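User: Predict the structure for this protein chain, please.
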Amino acid sequence: MNAVTQVSSPYFHFGLIVTGEGEEKHLPKLFKSLAATRICTFKVISRIGQRSPITSPRVIAKMVGSGKTIPGKDDDEIGLPARRFLNSGDSHCVMVIDDLEYSRKDMSAAVFQRYRTALDAFLTPEQRHYASVHFLVYMLEAYYFADASAINAVLHLDREDYGDDVETIHHPKNELKRLNPGFDEVEHGGQILEQIDVEHVLSRPEACASLRTMFAWCVQILSVSPFCDSSALTEKYHLRQGRLSDITSGQLTQAKA
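Assistant: Here is the predicted structure, written as structure tokens:
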């Protein structure tokens, strides 16, 4: 992977803009293995509503009339918070992370472009390298099934790891509620994320392309730190041979050498 521009600090702060309630409270736990390197932190900086492709003639006409490329609420909820966080200190990065449902899969490329445009409209060319858009497919709960030991420990089940790519599960949240009617996505989700082993989740190179791309982007950012063993992280998350997202992986080549 290409390296990003060298910055003055070896320590990075990742700010997360999320779309789900469980993600707002607990998503930084998904990155605990990266945080364990002691060269980065992760925190949620805002929660927004999910975006859909802009198809309304009225909205498009209003944007054209005002000379804008994005709706006003994207300015206020995505572009401005991203810029504020990037400007708040050295070595800050932003990730917009959408909890994508199966019902929205056919529009995911257009949704990605809307988020990406909202970021790019407010960021300098240099800052754009430190901002990215990613999807949890289909929803955060899908990844729990790739590490059944975490589900078993929290929900008192006796499951084995899902046999196929968990990013193909249509309704993972409903499946968890079927297995345990008392499943609470916030309370239990937080407990599962505390135990889940992302290295294990990404251990199958043919699976979890979207999640792997998100970790690949983080590793690419961290690779400029003198304290980062990027080769070890590349092996840890199977980034060299593992599948990447057709939609979001283009952001990896946007980083400056």
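Residues 1-8 have pLDDT under 50 and may be disordered.
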